[in-house]
Amino acid sequence: MVESDFDYESITLGLYQEWIELDCFNNGLATFSEQDFIDAGLTAEHRALIAFMAVQETGHATLLTNMLGETAPPQCTYNYPYSTVREFVDFNQILTRFGESGVWGFINHLDSREVGQLLAQSIATEARQQMAFRQMSGLFPMPVWFETGIPQSWAWTFLAPYISSCPQNTTRLAWQNFPALHVANQANINRFSPNDTADYVERVGNRTSDPAVSTIPEDQSCIHLNVSGVGCGPAISRNRSEPLSFPGKQIRLSWDAPGQAVGPNNSYITATSAGAPQFVAWVSQLNLTYTPLTVTGNNSGYTYQPASEVYKGDPASNDTMFIALTDSDLFLTPFNLSMINPHVAALGIFQAG
User: Fold this and answer.
1) First and final CA of the chain: distance in angstroms?
2) How far apart are CA 339 and CA 288, in angstroms?
3) Is the pTM of this model over 0.85?
4) What is the DSSP letter of 289?
5) For residue 70, with 0-12 CB atoms within 10 Å meaning exposed, 13-18 middle and 19 or more buried, which class applies?
6) pLDDT per residue over 243-280, tens digit each?
7) How far is C-alpha 115 from the chain's CA centre?
8) Could you tell me the strand order of the sheet in which 279-284 lies?
């Protein structure tokens, strides 16, 4: 059904995403007991919901496999970053975020309108999954007016580090893997005062999409606090008095050098064609906003969260969003955002809300 190389590579990326979601949802259910879920404020009914999400993914994977034919990639072997239920649901709200955004970024560039139609009906379900995982994580379920689209190479950059190996002769992807961008003071969603998060040590690992550490001292945690504006246990909605981040906050960054082996069998190498980074690009909703990067050392620096709005009353920097280091402040739109790729030095996830 795919009609061009572009469609083939894009749908293949989508299938890699569907496979990891299918595996990850089932892995969490197999790894953690019903009591583990109860201790995290979740119930057997939440487990049943996640199990149904996994069944949804079998349908999505079947759809994309049928589009690609006999060269469609199979399910691979993955390495996950979580050790608690709380970290599992946090990881999945990030995983489904870049999975959904990766499709919105290319869907209207597909040569086959028929493929685009079917894919849209699939990704709309993933958007619902992402919101459900945000609710299980005690986050506000839908803090933006518009969802974000990102280029295929961005989605592949975020996804590839979690794939350990794939069967022999699995179709390789043509998309670029960028170096990782790390937020030193990334807010820990499990703290009742998220802006007290310590630098670097409150992510479970060093991959840009790793979840926040949940095993912080109980007197610093909001998971079991049933207090309006403070608690962050699972709920239909949470409205926290202290935001995870805010305009004007100093954001401390570090980034990897290119040339790192990532992805299945470490067979992909991170690369960039950008010059020395000068800006931080903030990609959320309909907006691409740049702030100056102040370099403080070897592959380290800082910037300040922008106060830009999409429309009046809608802060652009919110939700689980995307940031990049660039050598230029090129003006782009959601439709042609991929033109930023030659200027990207490193890519990261930012937990703004």
Assistant:
1) 39
2) 12
3) yes
4) E
5) exposed
6) 999 999 999 999 999 999 999 999 999 999 999 999 99
7) 24
8) 287-292, 279-284, 320-326, 344-351
